[in-house]
Amino acid sequence: MAAHEANHIPDPLDHVLDDPQGNWEIFERLFGGFHLELPKIFGFQITKFMVLELLAAILIAAIFIPLCRRAHPGHLPRGAWWNAFESLLTFIRNEVARPNLGDHEADRYVPFLWTLFVFILFLNLLGMIPFLGSPTANISVTGGLAICSFLMIHGAAVAKMGPLHYLKSLWPHIDVPYMGPFVISPMVFLIELFGSVIKGVVLAIRLFANMFAGHMVLAMILTFIIVIGNAGYSHLWPVVTTASVLGVVALSLLELFVAFLQAYVFVFLTALFMGMALHPQH
Fold first, then answer.
1. What DSSP state is assigned to residue 97?
2. Beta bridge mates, 35
3. Residues pairing with 24 in the sheet
4. Pairwise CA distance, residues 228 & 216, whole Å
5. Cβ atoms within 10 Å of 155's Cβ, excluding its own
6. What is the model's pTM?
7. What's the rounded Cα separation, in Å, for the pair 49 and 45?
8. What is the pLDDT of residues 82-92, one digit of tens each?
């Protein structure tokens, strides 16, 4: 009996894990439950998070292509919708790109930073919708985003200085007599190279850990309702249910803030690392 009841307790990891077999559970253990079997394309399995990432890209395109067409002639923003996204773009340019990259390079890389911010934000917000999921709570997704940032961080510096000059900028000039230039400088150079990889890893783990932890807390609180119901404590079930629902609503508001905050932090750190690579003299 206990094993049978345990089988009816939903796995809180379902919301933040992707199924490599392409199964998308919807209303699992509710209303009979059903799942979608996503297809393979040229032998490559499509998964839930791939679909959600594509959905985020489609939503971004559907929002910004009309806004760009309206803004292209130079018209001033009108309406709450246009002003909201215009304000976000201005914030990324003035408070993230320019302080870290400088006025000359900022406008060149604002499109990348803005696209990265909006894409991560939409992926975070999709996790707030029931039965979808948060792709940024998966280390593979955040790892892919970190790789894009890593390539842009070093690619921008290589494009500006050239590969040899960029590597030369990483070589420290240490005024130490005798063996200093032959021992200490190579060690610091290797540390710099290793540190450039660590920066990308930090970007991936930071975003993943924050989004994963938030969704896990929400899932575990909701699981209390089912656990109490299956345990037979009918007199406690209304109290636990009410407390759990109210707690999830309050934490969901916090998660909404975290969705914006983590998108900002990821883009800010990317811009910071880009600025360090583009301006090694500082």
1. I
2. 25
3. 36
4. 19
5. 13
6. 0.79
7. 11
8. 778 888 888 88
Identity of the amino acid at 240: V
DSSP tag of 46? P
List residues bridging with 40 in a β-sheet.
45
Tell me the CA distances in angstroms from 121 to 61, 90, 189, 256, 260, one per residue in order.
14, 16, 35, 10, 6
In the three-class reduction of DSSP (H, G, I as helix; E, B as strand; rest coil), residue 31 is classed as coil
Instruction: Identify which has the larger pLDDT, 51 or 2.
Output: 51
Task: Give the pair of three-digit tokens for residue 139.
Answer: 């280390």
pLDDT digits (tens, 9 = 90+) for 103-119: 778 888 888 999 999 99
Q: Which of 79, 66, 67, 58 is nearest to 122 (CA)?
A: 58
Are 38 and 51 in contact by the 8 Å Cβ rule? The answer is: yes
Over residues 156-192, the pLDDT tens digits come to 888 888 888 877 777 766 666 666 566 676 777 788 7
C-beta atoms surrounding 100 within 10 Å: 22
Please give the Cα distance from 271 to 109 (Å, whole number). Answer: 9
C-alpha count within 13 angstroms, C-beta hemisphere, residue 179: 3
Half-sphere exposure of 151 (CA within 13 A, CB side): 6
